[in-house]
Specification:
The chain contains 13 helices and 13 strands. It is an alpha/beta fold. The strands form 2 sheets. It has a 7-stranded mixed beta sheet with strand order 7-6-8-9-10-12-13, sandwiched between helices. Strands 2-1-3-4-5-11 form a 6-stranded parallel beta sheet, sandwiched between helices. Helix 2 packs across helix 11, helix 3 crosses helix 4 and helix 5 runs parallel beside helix 6. InterPro entries: ABC_transpt-TYRBP-like.
Length: 326
């Protein structure tokens, strides 16, 4: 081969390399392991919000991203599902709440973990600080402790004659002990006595309501937990059976028949969590991505439920609602 021909051939091949590299990059399909707490039907709007956020950032499922879903029926199943993602070597584990983050953290110290509604990431040790997470975990926080205190205040205003209020909390939700301490601390100031009712299973939820009813509570503060979200219909039924108005953090529980909710806009949090997935896939270390706190909070009342329970919502309280179900 003549030298000129060799140089021409080599130069042409070199010119093609960037194109080949770009083609290979464009066909890369990133894999996201979604560690859910089922049934999946209870989280349709949140999953849609995450997908919407990813689409806005240029991701198309089946083309450059794939979401592998695993849904735990019980909290003790989440670790096994997290280890499945580790064996699959997914690019990111999406673990929405502390219930899923804790087992994901135990399963891997290297695969990035993104959360969307973590209650207390610093307090539980999942990140070193909000500004500098410092490990393989980051995402959006919903400030459960502060929200729970506000929910107790709202329930007290809604039921001004209440002297005893039940608190349904889940021992399998890592953030709940801290939230329980916070509502206990504010209860005396509000002039109410609390009846704490732990429940980590459906059977325990049913037993807890029987106990709270016998203890003479006027209403129930239901601390935010994936279990309580997926059991929205059951909790609404127990509310009517025992005539105990409930307040939640998640609007979905009010849509299912609960009286009132006050909490972070979960759809907004899940949509914004897509930003973290995008940054990580583009090479940013999760340790350098500050945790953001929820900025949108919603109060929703179900007036159909209020009427069925024979409750008149004080006008000063109802006027602050962001939405009302007639």
């Amino acid at each position: 081969m003549r030298r000129r021909d060799f140089v021409t051939l080599f130069g042409g091949a070199a010119a093609l390399l960037p194109l080949a590299a770009r083609a290979q990059q464009s066909t890369k399909v990133w894999r996201i392991g979604y560690l859910g707490f089922g049934p999946a039907s209870s989280w349709t709007s949140e999953v849609d919000a995450l997908r919407s956020g990813l689409r806005d950032l240029g991701y198309v499922e089946g083309k450059n991203i794939a979401i592998e879903f695993r849904w735990a029926e019980r909290a003790d199943q989440t670790f096994d599902l997290a280890t499945q993602f580790v064996r699959m070597n997914v690019d990111v584990i999406f673990a929405p709440a502390s219930t899923q983050v804790e087992p994901a953290r135990r399963a891997t110290k290297t695969i990035p973990i993104v959360f969307a509604q973590h209650a207390d990431p610093v307090g539980l040790g999942d990140v070193a600080s909000l500004s500098r997470p410092g490990g393989n975990i980051t995402g959006m926080s919903m400030l459960l402790t502060e929200i729970s205190v506000k929910e107790l205040e709202i329930l007290r205003e809604t039921l001004p004659d209440s002297a005893r209020i039940g608190v349904l909390w889940n021992p399998t939700t890592p953030s709940h002990p801290t939230a329980v301490k916070a509502v206990e601390a504010i209860s005396e100031k509000l002039g109410v006595q609390l009846v704490l009712a732990p429940a980590g299973t459906v059977t325990e939820i049913q037993a807890a309501f029987l106990t709270m009813s016998r203890e003479g509570v006027s209403g129930v503060l239901v601390l935010s937990s994936p279990l309580y979200t997926v059991q929205g219909v059951l909790l609404a039924d127990l509310q009517m059976k025992y005539r105990l108005p409930e307040i939640f953090a998640n609007r979905a529980n009010v849509d299912a028949g609960g009286l009132v909710s006050y909490g972070a806009d979960l759809n907004d949090l899940y949509r914004r969590a897509a930003f973290y997935v995008d940054k990580i896939l583009k090479g940013t270390n999760p340790a350098d991505l500050p945790v953001e706190q929820a900025s949108r909070y919603l109060m929703v009342f179900n007036l159909k439920t209020a009427k069925a329970l024979g409750i008149t919502i004080p006008p000063t309280v109802l006027a602050r609602a962001d939405d009302v179900i007639e």
